[in-house]
Design goal:
- The chain is α/β, with parallel strands linked by helices.
- It has two domains: 161 residues, Alpha-Beta Complex (Quinone Oxidoreductase, Chain A, domain 1), CATH 3.90.180.10; 150 residues, Rossmann fold, CATH 3.40.50.
- The protein has ten helices and 15 strands.
- Helix 8 links the parallel strand 12 and strand 13.
- Helix 3 crosses helix 4 and helix 3 packs across helix 9.
- It is globular, with a radius of gyration of 21 Å.
- The structure holds NADP nicotinamide-adenine-dinucleotide phosphate.
- NADP nicotinamide-adenine-dinucleotide phosphate binds next to helix 3, helix 4 and helix 10.
- NADP nicotinamide-adenine-dinucleotide phosphate (NAP) binds next to helix 3, helix 4 and helix 10.
Length: 351
């Protein structure tokens, strides 16, 4: 990737999708280009992208051929971002607003505010990085996954995978705040240390160096009431086999299998759901879109009081976006993976 000056005026630096993912994800899957800054049409707005939300599912359209629903080479790489409105022909948003919206890996985008979930205005007092991280879909999914899908009772044992990642770190801390006994599973010593010393979990298991089954037995001697699953695969099976009566499994994500061409065999311990009268339920953040403000209010209150820590892993510069996506699959990210492109311009004002 060529060295470029940071944010040249009115040149739109962008990453286009170039080559299907077939192994590690990185610069080689994309093409860096420069283009003119586009103009908004009726109902649209021109935004300056400030912070990119980097999420594991962004790899899915990069795996398949276009005829199988994958992205066409040469297309701009889509993604959610916190962006500032520079020009607007959309009555819902004003110049200067910071929005959390479907955008792309580029300096400037023309967006219409629609997408998998529609654009929301970032409230004053909320930073753009919080808006794409702990107070974005990441935190909202974690919040409703714990409060609505798991429906926890104080004192229950809660286990979460990818616990030091974006969703996992929020889910773990929300469960802790609600009075549960929380065990996190994560890859590496540094992540496990953070979970215990800073997120105040009751225990952490390093799946890279420890026997996860033996550690689950040691840390959850009476079994697991709630398993919040971000990765799928073998750990899901281990958790299912240890479910307690009326145990719940929250299916949030399957990062372990996003890049697998052939689906792995299903979990063999699913029968345990029968034996314990358990429940395994999927969670789609999109379904809670109308309740974003409710989650945001609760999470913000905990952030302000210091009960909840926002853990962010920031790659600085648009140039680093492909590398940031790759980090999610090597496990290098600690906390929510973000890319910082620019600060909001105070001169534009924020309504
Ligand atoms: N349901 C929804 O609406 C919704 C919305 C947002 C996100 N999600 C899902 O939530 C999950 C977490 O998303 P996130 O953005 O917070 O990502 P993340 O957990 O911060 O990052 C991915 C993490 O997954 C782990 N990982 C990577 N490859 C793995 C593999 N082969 N096997 C096991 N673990 C692996 C790594 O953690 P370790 O190093 O600790 O293993 C890595 O840090 C994802 O599956 C995502 O798709 C779901």
């Amino acid at each position: 990737m060529p060295a470029r000056p940071m944010t040249p005026e009115r040149v739109n630096r962008r990453w286009l999708f170039e080559q299907r993912v077939d192994g590690p994800v990185g610069d080689h899957n994309f093409r860096w280009t420069e283009a003119d800054v586009p103009s908004p049409g009726e109902g649209e707005m021109l935004v300056r992208n400030l912070w990119l939300d980097i999420a594991p599912t962004q790899v899915l359209p990069l795996l398949a051929a276009p005829e199988e629903g994958g992205m066409t080479p040469g297309s701009p790489m889509p993604g959610y971002a916190a962006s500032q409105v520079l020009e607007t022909r959309n009555p819902r948003f004003s110049r200067g607003d910071v929005v959390y919206a479907a955008s792309a890996w580029e300096d400037y985008s023309v967006i219409d505010g629609t997408g998998y979930w529609d654009a929301t205005k970032v409230p004053a007092g909320v930073s753009p990085e919080l808006a794409v991280g702990t107070l974005g879909i990441t935190g909202i999914v974690a919040y409703f996954g714990v409060t609505e899908v798991a429906r926890p009772r104080p004192g229950e044992t809660f286990v979460v995978s990818a616990a030091a990642g974006g969703v996992g770190s929020v889910a773990a801390q929300v469960a802790k705040i609600l009075g549960l006994r929380v065990i996190g599973i994560a890859g590496g010593k540094a992540k496990c240390e953070w979970l215990v010393s800073e997120a105040h979990l009751d225990g952490a298991i390093d799946h890279r160096t420890e026997d996860v089954a033996a550690r689950l037995d040691a840390l959850c001697p009476h079994g697991i009431d709630i398993y919040f699953d971000n990765v799928g695969g073998e750990v899901l099976d281990l958790a299912l086999g240890r479910l307690r009566p009326n145990g719940r499994v929250v299916l949030c994500g399957t990062t372990a299998r996003y890049r697998q061409a052939t689906p792995p065999p299903g979990p063999s311990n699913y029968w345990q759901l029968i034996m314990v009268n358990g429940r395994m339920e999927g969670l789609l953040g999109k379904d809670y879109f109308d309740r974003f403000p409710e989650a945001m209010t609760a999470l913000k209150k905990w952030l302000d009081s210091g009960q909840l820590r926002a853990k962010e892993d920031v790659v600085v510069g648009l140039e680093g976006a492909p590398r940031a996506l790759g980090r999610l699959f090597t496990g290098e990210n600690v906390g929510k993976q973000l890319v910082k492109i620019a600060d909001p311009s105070p001169g534009l004002g924020r309504s």
